[in-house]
Amino acid sequence: MERGVVFVLVIVLLSVSVFAHELSLSLESEEIGNGQPVLGTVTIDFDGRVDLESNVEVYIDDELVGTYPISELLKDKVYEVLPPVMGTVGREYNEQDFDFSSEGVKIFGINVTSDVYTKRDFREINSFSMKLEGKSKSGKFPTSVSVDIGYDNKTEYTYVGTPKIGFINLKSDYVKPSAQTREKFIGEGDMFCQEVELEPSTRYSVKANVKKESANVKLFGAILDDARMRPVDVEDCNPTSDEIRCCELGVQNSMQEVSCTYDLKVETKKKGYVCVFPKGDSEDEHWFRIKSDTDSSVNTGYINGRKNALDSYIFAAYRDYEKELNGVKIISSSEDDKDPFILALERAKRNCGDSCVIPIAISSLTKGIVKMSDLSLDIILGGAGEVISSFQDMQIRGSGALYDGELELDLSKTYTKAPSRRYRDYYIYVVLEGSESDEVSFTTIEAPEPNLDVSSKKVGVNQDVLFDVRDADSDSDIISYSWDFGDGTQGTGSVAVHKYTKPGNYIVIVKIRDQEGHVGTEAVKIVVEGEVEEAPKDFGEKLNKAITDVETAISSLSSYDSEAVEILGLSEQMNNAHSSLLLIKSGANGTSNESSLSKETALNGILSTAVKNLEIQSTSFDGKINSLDLVPSAIELMRGEITEVGYEKQLFLAQRNIVVNSGAKYVTVTYLSGNEDKFVIIKKEITGFGDVYELMPFGINVREVLTPGHSEIGTNMLKFSGVQRVSYIIEEADMTLISKIKSLVVPLDLSSFEVSDEPEILDDLFSCGDNICARGFEDQDSCPSDCAKGFPWWIIVVGLLLISGGLFYIYKYKGPGNLNSSKSLFKKPEDKLALKKFIRDSLGKRIQREQIILALKKKGWTEAQIREGFKP
């Protein structure tokens, strides 16, 4: 039996089921300046359903002068969304030409009920088919013709014609050509994806910038519906698989773009994920490297199912097809239980009312004519088979809202202005879906004109806006100014400066009053652009956000320098932070009994240590002792280890067989709390055996030593016994200073390095900068710091000679009397002090007394002076 009722839906608002809303209108003043904003309030008491596409309309003397969308009025309110209301009208027919004069949508529907059958009798859908024919309109055929069953914005079919040559790249704004790039590792079990917008096609290409790092491994590409899938889920994928299709990327041993193609049918534009994942058998940790960028303006990257802070160089392209429908196309359902037509019809069946109407929309991107005919919907209705094949017109009322209560609308948001003619009476009223308010009368007068001047009508968040009405026009003096900035704040004065803390559209109203009591108004819309991250409303929201942020940070760890992540122990640290947050959320271990303040404190403590982002710059430097001059400074701090003169020479000679590979990683850590920390990781790999001494120049501060078993010698030296790898963290420092960090290795067989001409080594005990001017070895030109030019002592010497001559004359010819003679061993007191300091420092270095005496004699000091220097 064949019975049909198919309706063509022309989108018209139903005149049925309209509810009566109660509206009232009040004005701020019965006198309004001609051509100035009408200020007042509209109060709406909703009675039942209101169409979300309807507007509050403002009329002055029956002329429409302003509107405001109901959807905006309800934007921040809680209401129930109601589905579209459909009804049937008109005749039945079997075919119809849909005439598109431009891009648009034509809607028709299928009624599966009647006076005899209801929705409960609609049991099963067996099959569906219809014929579409493209016809010319002014020489143009319809293009990208699509079908949406259920009118729910889920397209089930888009016409795809003959394929064109070549591929077109999908949008990939997540990668910026100018951004700095990094390389991330892909290992066993990893899957890297980028979210993209898929264009309809049947053939796609997957691309990636990658490099091979290991043998016996392959990299595959696929376009998936879900980035949370794992390689194990797509292990059996291949270019012709019925489940998941993929293709092999021919990765080389150098970083370059590689691609592969395979057939995949995508009916409509939709979101998808272009992914790469490895297969193979390798014990290596890293199988591939993939290029990524550091720009975060657009972020669509996923690693192993989690959103990642960095985007990978993974792309997709599609084969374009002829889009003009020039001829006949029959579309029909299949026996597949996942057939899109059957699924859409079942979905529409569940959503329809007792009078079950299934809407179907046909669209075209250009002008043209689409003829629809030969419709066949085979269903089970009332226990018997029915085939629906004929047409009938239909009407739709759009989605609605069910709101219980009153709302107020500021009349200024409708941009309603009074007529420009002065000294006339008018009436004003508002209308919503056929319901009207009472009329309110007002008179236009000649009021002062503010002549508002604004520095900019489009600004950013927290940017100053200057409002100026100093050029206001009035027949009498202006006595007051008042401002309403539209964000709940007010101001006064002829000039006002204001800034907005949130993006949005704001209506600013200024009122000026003259001596005669007349009020002039002017309004202007300010558009505030920008994004402001909203603070969590409560502790629970803040905690949930912290958990999400930590999970994102954990998924990003694999994109950072793996060595730095391991050295800093970030994996364990972030996993512990995640566990702690979950404990706070679940209330485990007695957390639920803690006060809100203690929970907040615990959360803030986790946020201050949990890493959000990591920036690392690596460099290398020469970290080996490369000059004999540097050895004495090392000897000075190796207390108790010098046994003989020439030891430093032996040490320097021993460094010839030592190799020190030194690296510095400049690290900037951003924590979830927003705080930053900067430091440098020093790592050295040493070829050679013995005790390692790290010599720090002044200005280097060690924060943490990572290599165990170290000891500190003084304030600027670390000793490591029997190690070949040394790691420690220092405070942020300039590379020039870091390059002065040197390693000195004391081998176990130091005695095998023979030193000749031992006295020659003693010369190094007297070096420039030791505060001793060594006579015969240093002077003012060669070492001005030790032999600086000072006071002209020769004048004092001449004076002393004259005094001495006089004293001698008195002693010789007048008798000794009570005078005592004494001879100083030093020319000046500073010499004695310098000598004592040198002897004290040398003894502190455990240098033998005999060695010190020998060195001092070589420099010209007398035995008497040396004995004096050794005295306490």
Globular, elongated, flat, extended or rod-shaped: what is the shape?
flat
| Count of DSSP H/I helices | 14
CATH uppermost class of the largest domain: Mainly Beta
The total count of strands amounts to 54
The domain count comes to: 7
Radius of gyration: 44 Å
Helix proportion: 10-25%
What low-confidence regions span 5 or more consecutive residues with pLDDT below 50? 1-18, 588-594, 636-644, 757-767, 770-778, 810-822
Residue-averaged pLDDT: 81
CATH architecture of the largest domain: Sandwich
End-to-end separation in angstroms reads 128 Å
Query: Biggest sheet, open or closed, and with what strands and sense?
Result: 7 strands, mixed
Percent of residues in beta strands? 35-45%
List the helices and strands and how they pair.
Layout (H helix, E strand, L loop, with lengths): L5 E5 L11 E6 L3 E3 L6 E6 L3 E3 L3 E6 L2 E7 H4 L6 E3 L2 E9 L2 E5 L3 E8 L10 E14 L10 E4 L7 E2 L4 E7 L11 E6 L5 E7 L2 E12 L4 E8 L22 E3 L6 E11 L3 E11 L7 E6 L7 E3 L2 E2 L3 E2 L1 E8 L6 E5 L7 H12 L5 E8 L3 E14 L2 E5 L2 E7 L2 E3 L3 E5 L14 E8 L2 E2 L3 E6 L7 E2 L3 E3 L3 E5 L9 E7 L5 E3 L2 E5 L4 E11 L4 E11 L9 H18 L5 H7 L1 H17 L9 H12 L3 E12 L8 H7 L9 H8 L4 E13 L4 E12 L3 E5 L6 E4 L4 E3 L4 E4 L4 E7 L3 H4 L3 E5 L11 H5 L30 H22 L14 H16 L4 H10 L4 H8 L2
Helix pairs in contact: 3-5, 5-6, 12-14
